[in-house]
C-alpha cells in the first residue's frame, strides 16, 4: 500500500454495518468513554487512533461486548448491528461474538494444534455438518489469512510453535473461520516485527472485501496505510471521525492536528 | 581534596577492592554458606530419619517360621468323619495345639535334638500362640487335609524371632520370664537342623492386627484397607467439590464482600489443626447423623473436610496461573463462559489441580489426629468387606496403626511400628511420583 495515495482512496459504500449512538462507558466511577457516535461502514477498514488511555480499545471492546467480562464496566447508549441493539437483554453475547470477531493485541493461539485453533469457532457454533466441511472451512480461513502455504503440511503441529507473525495470522484465521460480519482488531501488529506487520496489513486490506474491519492502532502510519475511515479519540471523547485522507491531510479539530503532527500523545 | 564540592568520592583502581565492595562480597559469601549449611542439615536429618526407620522397621518384613510335618489325625479333628467345616469348627485351637506339640516333639527327635531340661510348656513356647489358629484355619479351609501328614509353616514366638534378628540375646533372655536361654539355644540348633528359618513376611502386609501377646502375628492388612477406603472417599468427594468450588469462585462468582469472606475463610480452614476436624466429625457425623464409629466412611468424610481447603487453594492458584489471553481468545470467537472454562482454562490448569489434589490426599493419608477422635484407634481384627458395605464396618488406618503399636509394651512392636511407617512412606512416595508423572504427562500435551 502506498500511503501517498490516501487522498484518492474513496469509501466505496455508505451502508452502515454497525451504528453507535451516545455510547458512554464507565469503569466504576471512571467515565472512560463519553458520548461516542460512530458508523462502521460495510466493507471498510475503520481505524481508531489516539494516545494511550483515550478509550479507543474500550470502545472496540464494546462492539462485541467483551467489556461484559469486566465486572465494573457499565455501557450506556446504543450500539446497533444491522439495526439490532446488541445490548438488548435478549442478545446472547455468544452469538454476537460469532458475528463480530476479534483479534487481540498479543497473538494468543490456543495451546492446541493449528487445525484445532481454526476449527474451534465453527465447532462450538455448529457451523459445519461433517468433518469434510470443517476441513474446508479451516482451509479457507487459513488461505484468507495468508497462512495456508506455510502450515498446510503441519496442521497438527501446536499453534504456539509458530513465529509471532504467523501466530497473529493464525488468530486472524481463527476469527474469520466463523464467518463474522465485522472483524475487530486491537493493535494487531504491536507485538510484530515490520515484515510481519506488512503481511498483516496487506491481509487487512484483502479482508475488507468480505468484512467490515475495525482496527485500533498506535501507529498513525498504519492507520493511514490500511484504513478508509479514521476516528481520533482523546481523553474519552471522539474528537474527529471521517475519511482517512481528510483526517490526515486536513484535520478540522486542532487536537487532531496536534496529535498527527506529533505534538500531543 | 581539591574538588570538595563534588558529592561522589573519587574512585580508586579497578584492581583494588574498596571496603564497601569487600563487605558486600563477604555478605554474599556468608549467605551462600548459610544456604549450604541449611541444606546439609536437612539432608542429615533425612538420613538419620531414614536409617532409624529402615533400621528398625525392615525386620518387620522378615519373620521366623517353624516348618513342621504335622499329622492331622481324624480322631482329634473330625470325630464324625463328615469333613463338614461347620461340624469341625467345634474343635478349638486347644485340640490343634496338642497336634502341634506332638509334631514338634517328633520332629526334634527325628533330627536328634535333645530337649532335656525343657518342660513341655517351654517347648511349645517356641511357637507363636497364633500357630494353632493358623493350622485350624488352614484345615477348615481345606478339610480334605484331615488324615494326612502335611508340612506346615508356623510362626515362631516373637522372642525367638527377636533372637534371630538380634533384638533378644541370651543375656536378656535370662532376665525374661517369657523365654529362657535354654529355649533359645534349642531354637539355634533347630535353625541349624533346618526346622526354623527366616522368610519374607507377607502376613505383615495382608494380615490383621494381633493382640499384645503375639506381636509376630500382627499385620497391616486392615489398616491398609481402611486407609485405601478412606482415600477413595476423599478422592471421590473432595476432587469434584473442590474443583467446582474453585471454578465458581475464580471464574464466575461476583467479586464482592461475600466472596471475599468465603475466600478468607477457606484460607483459614486450611490452617485449622486437624484435631478440630476430629471433634467436628465426632459431633456431626457420629453423634448427630448416627454414622458408626471406627468406620472408613466417617474417616473419609472428616479427611475430605480437611483436604478440601488444600485442593481449593491449589486449584484456584492453578486457574489463576492460566493467562487471561486464553480466556479472551475463547470468548472472542464466541465461546460461552462455560466453554471457555472447560475447553481451555481447565485443561491448562489440570497439572496444577492434580498435583494439589494428590498432595492433599497424601496429607490426608498421613493424618491420625482426627481419626483418633472418631474411634479408628480401636483394635480391629476383622477385615471390612468390599465397598459399599465395608465403608460402614470398623477398620483402622495406617498412621493410627503406627500410633497404636508404639503404645504396646512388647519391644517387638517397635519393629512393627517402624515397618508400618515404611509402608506409609512407600505409599506417600508412590502418590508423589504419580503427581509428578501426571504433571509431566499433561504438560507435554501442549
Describe this structure in words.
The complex is a heterodimer of chains A (265) and B (446). Chain A is α/β, with parallel strands linked by helices and 265 residues long. Chain A is 35% helix and 25% strand. Chain A has a domain of 171 residues: P-loop containing nucleotide triphosphate hydrolases (Rossmann fold, 3-Layer(aba) Sandwich). Chain A is built from 10 helices and 10 strands. In chain A, helix 3 packs across helix 4, helix 3 packs parallel to helix 6 and helix 4 crosses helix 6. With 446 residues, chain B is mainly alpha-helical. Chain B folds into 2 domains: 141 residues, no CATH class; 222 residues, MetI-like (MetI-like fold). In chain B, 63% of the residues lie in helices and 5% in strands. Chain B is built from 19 helices and 3 strands. Chain B has a 3-stranded antiparallel beta sheet with strand order 2-1-3. The N and C termini of chain B lie far apart (65 Å). The chains are: A alpha/beta (265), B mainly alpha (446).
Outline the secondary-structure elements.
The complex is a heterodimer of chains A (265) and B (446).
Chain A: E1 16-27, E2 30-41, E3 45-49, H1 56-63, E4 73-81, E5 84-85, H2 93-99, E6 100-103, H3 114-125, H4 131-144, H5 148-151, H6 164-176, E7 182-186, H7 194-207, E8 212-216, H8 220-226, E9 229-234, E10 237-243, H9 244-249, H10 254-260
Parallel strand pairs in A: 3-8, 3-9, 6-7, 7-8
Antiparallel strand pairs in A: 1-2, 1-4, 4-5, 9-10
Helix pairs in contact in A: 3-4, 3-6, 4-6, 6-7
Chain B: H1 19-57, E1 62-71, H2 74-77, H3 85-88, H4 93-110, H5 120-124, H6 131-141, E2 149-155, H7 158-165, H8 170-174, H9 181-192, E3 196-200, H10 203-206, H11 221-252, H12 257-269, H13 274-288, H14 296-320, H15 324-332, H16 337-365, H17 369-373, H18 398-406, H19 412-444
Antiparallel strand pairs in B: 1-2, 1-3
Amino acid at each position: 500500500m502506498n500511503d501517498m495515495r490516501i487522498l484518492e482512496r474513496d469509501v466505496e459504500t455508505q451502508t452502515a454495518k454497525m451504528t453507535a449512538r451516545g455510547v458512554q462507558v464507565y469503569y466504576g466511577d471512571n467515565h472512560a468513554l463519553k458520548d461516542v457516535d460512530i458508523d462502521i461502514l460495510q466493507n471498510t477498514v475503520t481505524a481508531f487512533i489516539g494516545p494511550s488511555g483515550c478509550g479507543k480499545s474500550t470502545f472496540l471492546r464494546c462492539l462485541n461486548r467483551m467489556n461484559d467480562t469486566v465486572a465494573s464496566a457499565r455501557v450506556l447508549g446504543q450500539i446497533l448491528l444491522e439495526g439490532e441493539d446488541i445490548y438488548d437483554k435478549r442478545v446472547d453475547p455468544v452469538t454476537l461474538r460469532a458475528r463480530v470477531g476479534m483479534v487481540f493485541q498479543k497473538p494468543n493461539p490456543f495451546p492446541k494444534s493449528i487445525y484445532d485453533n481454526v476449527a474451534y469457532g465453527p465447532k462450538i457454533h455448529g457451523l459445519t455438518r461433517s468433518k469434510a466441511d470443517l476441513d474446508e472451512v479451516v482451509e479457507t480461513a487459513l488461505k484468507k489469512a495468508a497462512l495456508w502455504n506455510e502450515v498446510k503440511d503441519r496442521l497438527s503441529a501446536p499453534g504456539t510453535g509458530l513465529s509471532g507473525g504467523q501466530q497473529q495470522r493464525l488468530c486472524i484465521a481463527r476469527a474469520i473461520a466463523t464467518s463474522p460480519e465485522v472483524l475487530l482488531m486491537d493493535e494487531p501488529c504491536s507485538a510484530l516485527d515490520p515484515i510481519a506487520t506488512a503481511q498483516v496489513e496487506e491481509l487487512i486490506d484483502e479482508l475488507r472485501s468480505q468484512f467490515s474491519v475495525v482496527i485500533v492502532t498506535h501507529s498513525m502510519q498504519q492507520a493511514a496505510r490500511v484504513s478508509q475511515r479514521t476516528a481520533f479519540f482523546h481523553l474519552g471523547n471522539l474528537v474527529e471521525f471521517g475519511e482517512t485522507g481528510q483526517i490526515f491531510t486536513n484535520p478540522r479539530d486542532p487536537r487532531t492536528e496536534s496529535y498527527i503532527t506529533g505534538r500531543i500523545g | 581534596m581539591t574538588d570538595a564540592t563534588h558529592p561522589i568520592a573519587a574512585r580508586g583502581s579497578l584492581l583494588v577492592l574498596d571496603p564497601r565492595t569487600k563487605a558486600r562480597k563477604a555478605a554474599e559469601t556468608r549467605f551462600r554458606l548459610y544456604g549450604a549449611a541449611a541444606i546439609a542439615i536437612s539432608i542429615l536429618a533425612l538420613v538419620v530419619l531414614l536409617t532409624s526407620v529402615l533400621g528398625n522397621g525392615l525386620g518387620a518384613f522378615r519373620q521366623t517360621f517353624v516348618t513342621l510335618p504335622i499329622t492331622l489325625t481324624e480322631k482329634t479333628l473330625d470325630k464324625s468323619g463328615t469333613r463338614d467345616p461347620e461340624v469341625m469348627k467345634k474343635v478349638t485351637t486347644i485340640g490343634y495345639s496338642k497336634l502341634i506339640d506332638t509334631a514338634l516333639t517328633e520332629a526334634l527327635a527325628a533330627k536328634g535334638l535333645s530337649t532335656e531340661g525343657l518342660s513341655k510348656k517351654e517347648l511349645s513356647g517356641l511357637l507363636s500362640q497364633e500357630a494353632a489358629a493358623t493350622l485350624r484355619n488352614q484345615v477348615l479351609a481345606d478339610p480334605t487335609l484331615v488324615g494326612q501328614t502335611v508340612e506346615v509353616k508356623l510362626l515362631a514366638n516373637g522372642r525367638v524371632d527377636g533372637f534371630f534378628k538380634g533384638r533378644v540375646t541370651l543375656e536378656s533372655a535370662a532376665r525374661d520370664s517369657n523365654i529362657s536361654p535354654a529355649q533359645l539355644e534349642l531354637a539355634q540348633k533347630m535353625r541349624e537342623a533346618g526346622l526354623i528359618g527366616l522368610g519374607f513376611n507377607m502376613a505383615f502386609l495382608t494380615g490383621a492386627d494381633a493382640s499384645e501377646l503375639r506381636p509376630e502375628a500382627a499385620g497391616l492388612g486392615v489398616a491398609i484397607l481402611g486407609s485405601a477406603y478412606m482415600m477413595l472417599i476423599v478422592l471421590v468427594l473432595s476432587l469434584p467439590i473442590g474443583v467446582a468450588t474453585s471454578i465458581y469462585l475464580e471464574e464466575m462468582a461476583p467479586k464482592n464482600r461475600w466472596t471475599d469472606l468465603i475466600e478468607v475463610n477457606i484460607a483459614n480452614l486450611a490452617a485449622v489443626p486437624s484435631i478440630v476436624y476430629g471433634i467436628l466429625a465426632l459431633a456431626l457425623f457420629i453423634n448427630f447423623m448416627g454414622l458408626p464409629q471406627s468406620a472408613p466412611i466417617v474417616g473419609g468424610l472428616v479427611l475430605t473436610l480437611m483436604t478440601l481447603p488444600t485442593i481449593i487453594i491449589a486449584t484456584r492458584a492453578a486457574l489463576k496461573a492460566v493467562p487471561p489471553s486464553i480466556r479472551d481468545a475463547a470468548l472472542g470467537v464466541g465461546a460461552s463462559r462455560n466453554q471457555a472454562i472447560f475447553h481451555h482454562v481447565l485443561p491448562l490448569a489440570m497439572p496444577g489441580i492434580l498435583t494439589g489434589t494428590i498432595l492433599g490426599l497424601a496429607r490426608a493419608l498421613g493424618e491420625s489426629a482426627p481419626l483418633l477422635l472418631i474411634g479408628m484407634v480401636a483394635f480391629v481384627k476383622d477385615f471390612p468387606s468390599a465397598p459399599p458395605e465395608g465403608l460402614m464396618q470398623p477398620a483402622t488406618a495406617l498412621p493410627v496403626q503406627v500410633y497404636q503399636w508404639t503404645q504396646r509394651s512388647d519391644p517387638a512392636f517397635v519393629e512393627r511400628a517402624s515397618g508400618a511407617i515404611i509402608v506409609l512412606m512407600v505409599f506417600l512416595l508412590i502418590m508423589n511420583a504419580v503427581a509428578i508423572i501426571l504433571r509431566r504427562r499433561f504438560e507435554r500435551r501442549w
